[in-house]
Amino acid sequence: MKILMVCLGNICRSPLAEGIMRHLAENTGLDWTIDSAGTANYHVGDPPDRRSVKVAQKHGIDISHLRGRQFNAADFEQFDIIFVMDVNNYRDVIGKAKSAKDKDKVALMMPDQSPVPDPWYDDALFEPVYEMLYNACSERLERLNA
Q1: Which molecular-function annotations from GO does this UniProt entry contain (predicted)?
Q2: Among 24, 39, 74, 114, which residue has the least CB neighbours within 10 Å?
Q3: Going from the N-terminus, what domains does the chain have, and what CATH number goes with each?
């Protein structure tokens, strides 16, 4: 299974989701490929936001080695499923789809279709966002591995 996590800048939410899903997959003995990207090119080559790194480390997950990259149409060929963090990310990713098959690979990260809030402007959101993503990744992994 190859999974791509996508948010706006690829420094807060999607690297957290990548780290969490990779951690859960490895602990379950799954040899999955997990990556992340941003719809914008603001932070290409940059490490994750220090607050994302900190909250991940608090939970035993190291994402400090990750680097931001921009989502591109070739990702549809490389990944089985693409999880996006909110409706704007969904629109941006779907906008690069070349086929119905590509569009079918895209889903909101949260199983209940709610958005994952961007914690960039509010330090207090990083822990709740981590918890949301952990729960969503756990549920998604369970369903995908069934």
Answers
A1: protein tyrosine phosphatase activity
A2: 74
A3: 2-144 (3.40.50.2300)
* HSE value, Cβ hemisphere, 13 Å, CA-based, for 67: 3
* Whether the Cβ atoms of residue 84 and residue 114 lie closer than 8 Å to each other: no
Q: Is 123 in the active site?
A: no
Query: Is 118 designated active site?
Result: yes
* 61-105 confidence digits (pLDDT tens): 999 999 999 999 999 999 999 999 999 999 999 999 999 999 999
Q: Do the bridges between strand 33-38 and strand 2-7 make them parallel or antiparallel, or are there none, so unpaired?
A: parallel
Instruction: List strand residue ranges (DSSP E) for the chain, in order.
Output: 2-7, 33-38, 81-84, 106-108
Residue 97: its pLDDT value, please? 98
Please pick, among 12, 13, 22, 75, the residue that the annotation labels catalytic. Answer: 13
State the catalytic residue, choosing from 49, 75, 86, 118: 118
The reported pLDDT for the residue numbered 146 is: 87
- Mean pLDDT calculated for residue range 26-48: 98
